[in-house]
């Protein structure tokens, strides 16, 4: 009689599927945060495995800053349509016009403005749970979150007052106005994500692979030249072969010089890397405290 053993990816997958099903069982109005990035792409495949052939029980929610890579939005829309899912997009520009998000004088990044936009969308649709693709290995503040991360009536998170998670038992009880953030990929690493993408033969946006792009060197990293990020006086514009490891706003996503044209190339590159993936994000350069402060206020 042979025994059945899960490999590493198999264990991570079953753990994540269990959490997905817990969400469906415990919450009335969950949503899945889908940007089109690699982590949320894995979430969609896990949702398929958890619930097919039934319809997926959650709509997809994305906060569009207006500074997204066009390749990312095109992939987001196409993938949602392929799955027959309901895609809800809420734009920071609309939140600014409605007075929901208020930019500070001279503020260029819309990172902070995603917070009130997201919280307003959660309130608008009365979502009691938002499934996200954050992983503990990404950043120190993210490593402090449990699978089920409680948010109070103001959308805020208290890292020192989290609910215990013992023997895979999760407390999803929330009062009206409160909600939960759930992170099925918490125990995954960047390497795990790409190995899963390879195993499941998942499509990803083209900017994850090497391509030519005009860039400028700023604050120790290559940033893409766009209308939103024009070169400054005396800055040299270089035509480079680059790709992204993690995708944020087009004004803050650092490009890495890379010839990686396949997922195997990317896996080899990650294995040799000495910088974390979020080390290429200019919006994270202010450090752990800044990220934790944003998360306390309601950030993803």
State the separation between the terminal residues, measured CA to CA: 46 Å
Top CATH class of the largest domain: Alpha Beta
Tally of discrete structural domains: 2
In spatial order, strands of the major sheet run 3-2-1-4-6-5
Percent of residues in β-strands:
15-25%
In which range does the helix fraction lie? 25-40%
CATH architectural name of the largest domain:
3-Layer(aba) Sandwich
Q: Indicate the low-confidence ranges by residue numbers.
A: none
Question: Structural class of the helix and strand makeup?
Answer: alpha/beta
**SSE string, helices as H and strands as E:** HEHEHEHHEEEHEEEEHH
Average pLDDT value? 89
Radius of gyration: 19 Å
- Count of beta strands: 10
**Name of the CATH homologous superfamily of the largest domain:** HUPs
The CATH topology of the largest domain turns out to be Rossmann fold
Largest sheet: 6 strands, mixed
Overall shape: it is globular
> What is the helix tally?
8
């Amino acid at each position: 009689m042979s025994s059945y053993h899960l490999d590493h990816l198999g264990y991570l997958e079953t753990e994540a599927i269990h959490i997905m099903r817990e969400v469906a069982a415990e919450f009335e109005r969950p949503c899945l945060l889908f940007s089109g990035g690699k982590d949320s792409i894995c979430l969609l495949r896990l949702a398929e495995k958890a619930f097919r052939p039934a319809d997926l029980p959650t709509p997809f929610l994305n906060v569009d800053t207006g500074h997204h890579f066009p390749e990312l939005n095109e992939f987001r829309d196409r993938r949602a349509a392929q799955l027959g899912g309901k895609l809800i997009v809420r734009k920071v520009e609309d939140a600014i016009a409605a007075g929901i998000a208020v930019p500070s004088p001279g503020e260029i990044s819309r990172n902070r403005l995603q917070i009130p936009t997201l919280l307003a969308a959660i309130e608008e649709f009365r979502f009691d749970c938002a499934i996200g693709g954050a992983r503990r290995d990404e950043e120190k503040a993210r490593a402090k979150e449990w699978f089920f991360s409680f948010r109070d009536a103001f959308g805020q998170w208290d890292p020192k007052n989290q609910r215990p998670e013992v023997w895979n038992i999760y407390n999803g009880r929330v009062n009206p106005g409160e909600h939960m953030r759930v992170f099925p990929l918490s125990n995954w690493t960047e390497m795990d994500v790409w190995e899963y993408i390879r195993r499941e033969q998942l499509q990803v946006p083209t900017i994850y692979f090497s391509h030519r792009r005009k860039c400028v060197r700023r604050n120790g990293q290559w940033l893409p030249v766009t209308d939103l990020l024009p070169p400054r006086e005396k800055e040299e514009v270089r035509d480079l072969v680059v790709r992204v490891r993690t995708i944020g706003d087009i004004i803050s996503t650092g490009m890495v010089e890379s010839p990686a044209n396949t997922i195997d190339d990317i896996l080899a590159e990650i294995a040799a890397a000495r910088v974390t993936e979020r080390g290429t994000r200019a919006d994270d350069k202010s450090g752990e405290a800044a990220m934790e402060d944003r998360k306390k206020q309601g950030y993803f």
